[in-house]
Structures are given as structure tokens and as C-alpha cells.
Amino acid sequence: MTQLSNTRGNATRQANKTLRRERLLSIARELISGNGFEAFTINELALKAQVSIPTVHNLLGKKSDIFEHLVVDMVAKVEAALAQPNIKDPIVATETFIDSLLDLFAANETFYKAAFVAGERTQFFEHELPTGIFNKSLSIAMQVCVDAKKNGFLQGNIDVDWLAKQLFGCQRLARHDWVNGYISLSEYRTQVLIGAFITLAADATPSFQLRLFAVIKSLAS
What is the reported pTM? Predict the structure, then answer.
């Protein structure tokens, strides 16, 4: 009976610890959304959460550890947004990909901008990481190109590896411009899609190329 009580007690304490950690992370996210990563401090978090600084260290660790917790959470949300059904039409597939991503960013634009900056500065987004969001985005671009070729939208005169890298490059450049405040989310969408469709047009079949030209003209206007 005592052993069962101890087990239940440990489970309860662990659950409470998890709840306290999640509350601190939520407050940290709010503070960062308001002031950015650079201005964020452990002292500010402790004061806002009405706990001691040692409590913050015990539950979350150092400032860099808190950044990592938040960036990991962001990556998980981005990867969930990138998951999409198998869509044959490359125009619809590309639009679905970018719209899912931008819907996520729009939910807390300031935080996601700050998180991308922090992730790059801490080298958390190393391109070599096979499970990183950069490689995830590249793999989706590759799948769009492979499916487009298989379904007769592309002629196959340009290697799909190069097409996929160019598609990824369009998205990466637009994200960089948005993170640094050069463009809005709506401009992000337009920039990505026009770049992606110009890339696909380079190897498109005649009928698909005409469709791409029409969509590009519509986006540009």
C-alpha cells in the first residue's frame, strides 16, 4: 500500500512539474513575442511568473535552454503545418504548402520571427540535420517536382533535384525577407509562389506552362 502511494505521489509531483514548466514556457513565449529574444531575461520571466530565479533554473535551465525548448516546440508546429495530403496538381500542392505555413506564422508573427532568428544564431537550424525544418521543406519541394514529372506536368529536361532546390530557395529567401521585416506575410506568399511557378515553368509541358503563366500574371497583379 505504501509503495502504491509513493508511486502515485511521484506521478502527481511529475505532473505538477510538467504543468509548471509549460506555464513558464508559455510566459516566456509571451515575453519574447513582445520584446524579442535579445531582451528576454531569466529575471523578467521569474518576476512575471511570480517564482524565484532558482525555480526557473530548476524547471527550464539557462536562457539558452529556454530558447531551445521554444525552438523545438516551434519546429514541431512547423513540421505539423508542413504535413499535407498527396496532391497531384503542383500548383495546388505549392499553394497548400505555403498557405499552411503562413497560417501558422500569422497566429503569432512576432514570436515566429524571433524564433527563426534565435534558431539560426544558435545553429539549431543547421542544414545538415536530416530532421531539420530546412531538409523537411526541401523534401516537400522534391516531392512536388517528382510528382509533377510523374503526372505529366514537367517534361523532364531539367533534373528534379535542381528544380526542388530552386523551389526551396524561393521559400527560404522569402522567409528571410519576412523575418527581417522587409516584407509582410502576404508579400511572403506572393514572392514564394511567383518564384516557385517561374521555376516550374522552366520545365513545364506547353499546356501546364500556359496555366503557370496565367497564375503568375494573376499573382503579380
Answer: 0.76
